[in-house]
Amino acid sequence: MKQKLSGREYTYVASMLFGMFFGAGNLIFPVHMGQMAGANVWPAVIGFCVTGVGLPLLGVAALGISRSGGLFELGSRVGKPYSMFFTCLLYLTIGPFFAIPRCATTSFTVGLEQVLPQGGSTRLYLLAFSAAFFAAALFFSLRPGKILVWVGKVLNPCFLLFLGILVVVAMLRPGAAVGAIVPEGAYASQPFFTGFLEGYNTMDALASLAFGIVVVQVIRGLGVTEPDAVAGSTVRAGIFSCLLMAAIYVAVTIVGVQSRGLFETSENGGIALAQIAQHYLGSAGLLILAATVTLACLKTSVGLITSCAETFTGLFPKGPTYRVWAVIFSLVSLLFANFGLSSIIGYSVPVLMFLYPLAITLIVLSLLGRFFAYDRAVFVWTTALTLVGALYDFAAALPAPLLAACRLDGVLAVLRETLPLAKLGLFWVLPALLGLVIGLVLHFVRGDRRIA
Q: 88 and 315 in contact (C-beta within 8 Å)?
């Protein structure tokens, strides 16, 4: 039995992992974090890499170690109704509600918006652009052919080459020294934990649960079938892609810090990236960046629409066909894209604050499940109490006007000062640990009970 991949096979899997995880959010959030973090950039970027690099790798490994056939099967260790809820919400989040619309709005913000007349109707331009964007995405989603392979092999290397040029030029001619930039907002007092939560925005840990089975199947298809060997090969192959991703995060974040000597802190990372590209490489550089980002985001959108449509077709076999789901998801994405990039980012934060704790505990339990025989009691208790904490973190992250309208702002302000770790956005950690302890006690008291 084959125990590990060859060097060429490791490179192949690592390249595929990188292509799966690296999208629009992987650029716009680090550069904006850099502008905000200033002199506190290093603890911030370390926190960002924990959730933006480490968790996705662990998510893929969890699917390999637990021998699960996908996210629904993994979540079924808690219960099938919960797994249906969690799977649907996760795919909708990394699909038509947030990630797919973000692809279109990022393309527009980085590209077309920067060359449009300043007095024009930005909303009308965004509507026209997003309509064309999703018409193309739907076209390729219904006729995928070799578009993903072609774009992945040609576009990604070109994009990385251009990005590398931009980063090198920006670092050689910095707008300001890193130590001279005063941190803003929460980065002034809690840079690590703020960066940790900022890593949620990449959605890569969620994507790892949704798409990790693809990586596991590829490794098994290459002849590695023993679960420990599959997990080990996944981790080893992922090290290269994760190191590359982490290196890009660090470089782009530093460029974001240095840009504060040239610009004010931007509303979002898309605007910052466009400003930096135009300053260092002129209009031509901005157009090249816009073209590569748009095509890269189009490729990502095609992959997400395809994955979501296939998943919902499988979850609801008596429901709409694949083609109908693809049309529905494209239209919903078009609708949400027209809220604008900053609005999409703002409204996604509460949902991510709710989903990430559930995803993290599911990953950890799946990785360590052999030590408690994957006992359902451990999964149920940990998830149930994590859910309580996640609901609070969700409510606390809602936009201030909405909290005020619901008359929750006063109550949540008191709880924020009272509950442990609530100020850091990590209140869920203690309920999760309590649930884990209760589940383990029940398991060892009652003896070895495996899930059905």
A: yes
Q: Greatest CA separation found in the chain? A: 71
Burial bucket for residue 177 (CB in 10 Å: 0-12, 13-18, 19+): exposed
Q: What is the pLDDT of residue 451?
A: 47
Contacts of 190 (CB under 8 A, 6+ apart): 424
- Burial 403-434, CB ≥16 within 10 A → b, else e: beeeeebeebeeeeeebeebebbbbbbebbeb
Joined tokens for residue 337: 């894209």
Which helix (H) or strand (E) segment holds residue 34: the answer is helix 25-37
Is pLDDT above 80 for 324?
A: yes
Q: Count of CB atoms within 10 A of residue 275's CB? A: 19
Please state at what angle helix 99-107 crosses helix 322-337, rounded to 10 degrees. Answer: 50
Quick one: pLDDT at residue 134?
96
State the pLDDT confidence band at 448, using cuts at 50, 70 and 90: low
Triad 344, 33, 421: Cα angle to 5°: 85
Determine the pLDDT at residue 303. Answer: 82
Tell me how far apart the alpha carbons of residues 450 and 452 are, in angstroms, rounded to a whole number.
Answer: 6
Q: Which H or E element spans position 113?
A: helix 113-115
Q: What are φ and ψ of residue 316, in 5° steps?
A: -125, 75
**Amino acid at the residue 108:** F
Report residue 387 as tokens. Answer: 């859910």
- For residue 2, what are the β-bridge partners? 224
User: What is the reported pTM?
Assistant: 0.87
| Structure confidence at residue 153 (pLDDT) | 65
Whole-number Å distance between alpha carbons of 211 and 18: 12
Query: According to the model, what pLDDT value does residue 312 have?
Result: 94
| Tokens representing residue 284 in the block | 């031509």
> Nearest CA to 356 among 251, 255, 134, 207?
207
- Give which of 362, 328, 321 is closest to 62, Cα–Cα: 362
DSSP for 293-362? HHHHHHHHHHHHHHHHHHHHHHH-TTS--HHHHHHHHHHHHHHHHTT-HHHHHHHHHHHHHHHHHHHHHH
Task: Report d(CA 391, CA 283) in Å as an integer.
Answer: 46
Q: Above pLDDT 90, what percent of the chain?
A: 47
Does 114 have pLDDT greater than 70? Answer: yes
The more confidently predicted of residues 110 and 264 is 264
Task: Look at 203 and 224; give whichever has higher pLDDT.
Answer: 203
Compute the distance between CA of residue 342 and CA of residue 98 in angstroms, rounded to an integer: 11
- Tally the residues of the chain: 452
